[in-house]
Amino acid sequence: MRADRGSVRYVDAKPLLRGLSVLQDNVITRIEERVAAWTLLPSDNGQSLQVTQYGVEEHTAQNLSYFSNQSLSTSNEALVATLVFYLSNVTHGGQILFPNSEDKSKIWTDCTKSSEILRPIKGNAMLFFNLHLNTSPDPSSFHSRCPVQESEMWVATKFFFLRPTIAGSSSDECSDEDDNCPAWAAKGECEKNPIYMIGSDDYFGTCRKSCKVC
């Protein structure tokens, strides 16, 4: 599905993935397995990969609404983490900046001062967390994007939420999200770290079954 929004062109691949079971596609399966191994985040809590194309933009200021994702506004779950894959090289522009970063160096906050380490390079990926471990919002995760000034940029984005998002998953299902849960519970982590292990109103516990709360 493609829609033109000014000089930026968006391509959302999610409708293609809705009718395609991950288990039936080896490429998607391998990507999801590598994402889960790298991020250590439950795959059920992530949305399908969404592909976006950005053409050359005339704006001189950075765009503060980098992820124009309608599915985020319809989700009642808090956004935990954002993963961005670069699918193409960009010769000039397109960097993601973090204006509220604790590191006040201008390479993280100014498009004109941005370092080469932030330049979009095909095959690279960027992961940042939108919440602290106690599920409170992390202001330093606020991000912006420098306009694409040459060539074009293709990215694939994956969003992770507090609770499962895949159809058929149930937040009421009694299960553990990590194979280490039984060992952690045996060491008393259910009492020492109840928010992570059991959960709260805002966070779905990782080890509810081992902590015997369901």
Automatic annotation (TrEMBL):
Catalytic reaction annotation: L-prolyl-[collagen] + 2-oxoglutarate + O2 = trans-4-hydroxy-L-prolyl-[collagen] + succinate + CO2
Bilayer topology reads: Single-pass type II membrane protein
The cross-references to Gene3D superfamilies, in alphabetical order and at most eight, read: q2cbj1_9rhob like domain
Gene Ontology MF annotations: iron ion binding; L-ascorbic acid binding; procollagen-proline 4-dioxygenase activity
SMART domains documented for this protein: P4Hc (SM00702), ShKT (SM00254)
| Subcellular location, record wording | Endoplasmic reticulum membrane
Cofactor(s) needed for function: L-ascorbate
**Keywords of this protein's UniProt record, alphabetized?**
Dioxygenase, Endoplasmic reticulum, Iron, Membrane, Metal-binding, Oxidoreductase, Signal-anchor, Transmembrane, Transmembrane helix
EC number, as in UniProt:
1.14.11.2
PANTHER family under this entry? PROLYL 4-HYDROXYLASE 12-RELATED, PROLYL 4-HYDROXYLASE ALPHA SUBUNIT
Q: What is this protein called?
A: procollagen-proline 4-dioxygenase
Q: Which organism is it from?
A: Linum tenue
